[in-house]
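Duplicate of #3305? Posting structure anyway:
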């Protein structure tokens, strides 16, 4: 009988211990939750602290991005038309009027020794001149010293239409509470994977945007997408070159889309979607270096061999003659 009592006591202790362990596990699971995604307000405040605040602005105060045909403004604009300097952002199947939609605007919000901030207010549907509506607003904010870069994007609701869009007369700061209704959440913006095109530095040169002279430049500066977990997850770009290569005298060449496509567009190997006959003829087809005034023979003598070496390294970056340099920021961010 005594032995039976001992067994019963042991059984009760075991049941109680099992209960306590189950309760502890239950409360532990309740306490260990996945980290909440950073919202636009928190992201904007971190960007303001590590780079500079993005203030509210008016898209209509920006410089209009010209859409010309044979260097002249056409009498009218048509969906899917060709032009001299098309936007490089067009994607096949996108619900837009093409690469030559007029009246987009670019505005430099800040460009000094501390920070560079630029906004593009994009038209994807054809509207009247000086419209108040835009289909997309993008901001790039860059710290000149550390290289830290932030990305903000707002998009009009689909399907796009000329009679609706984003009001650009007062674009709110992403730090404002009203900014939550205007700007995409960081996770949504990050899905665009901007770094694949902006792989050499934060500001991508093209004839389209260069017309405005509203583009900050930091071609060899520090560059890091180190603010916000969703942006830190982006692929880390590297610069590709060969010894004495003339193509990298003024800027880096990134190893992502710049390597795969943009270099070919810049030297006339392929033409950008929406390019007209003017854009396909030399020297307009060769928009690197900027302001190219050389004869085609002179251009070939200076750049052709270097271009071929870049193409070879883009195809096989592990080749011994290729110099691959990771692009990083200068200082760790806390």
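Output from current build:
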């Amino acid at each position: 009988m005594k032995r039976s009592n001992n067994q019963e006591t042991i059984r009760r202790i075991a049941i109680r211990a099992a209960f306590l362990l189950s309760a502890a596990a239950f409360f532990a699971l309740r306490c260990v939750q996945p980290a909440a995604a950073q919202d636009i307000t928190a992201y904007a405040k971190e960007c303001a602290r590590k780079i500079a605040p993005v203030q509210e602005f008016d898209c209509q105060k920006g410089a209009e991005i010209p859409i010309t045909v044979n260097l002249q403004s056409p009498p009218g604009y048509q969906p899917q038309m060709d032009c001299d300097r098309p936007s490089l952002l067009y994607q096949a199947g996108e619900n837009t009027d093409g690469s030559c939609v007029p009246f987009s605007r670019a505005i430099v919000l800040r460009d000094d020794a501390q920070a560079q901030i630029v906004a593009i207010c994009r038209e994807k549907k054809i509207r009247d001149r000086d419209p108040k509506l835009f289909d997309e607003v993008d901001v790039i904010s860059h710290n000149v010293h550390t290289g830290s870069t932030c990305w903000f994007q707002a998009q009009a609701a689909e399907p796009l239409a000329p009679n609706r869009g984003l009001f650009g007369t007062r674009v709110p700061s992403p730090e404002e509470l009203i900014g939550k209704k205007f700007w995409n959440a960081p996770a949504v913006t990050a899905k665009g994977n901007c770094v694949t095109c902006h792989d050499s530095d934060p500001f991508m040169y093209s004839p389209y945007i260069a017309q405005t002279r509203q583009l900050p430049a930091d071609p060899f500066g520090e560059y890091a997408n180190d603010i916000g977990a969703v942006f830190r997850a982006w692929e880390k770009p590297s610069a590709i070159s060969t010894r004495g290569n003339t193509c990298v005298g003024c800027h880096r060449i990134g190893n992502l889309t710049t390597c795969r496509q943009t270099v070919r567009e810049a030297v006339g190997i392929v033409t950008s979607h929406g390019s007209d006959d003017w854009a396909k003829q030399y020297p307009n087809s060769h928009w690197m270096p900027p302001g190219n005034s050389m004869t085609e023979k002179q251009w070939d003598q200076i750049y052709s061999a270097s271009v071929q070496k870049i193409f070879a390294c883009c195809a096989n970056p592990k080749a011994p003659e290729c110099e691959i340099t990771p692009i990083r920021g200068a200082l760790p961010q806390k």
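Confirmed duplicate; merging threads. DSSP finds nine helices and nine strands in the chain. The chain has one domain: 40-326.
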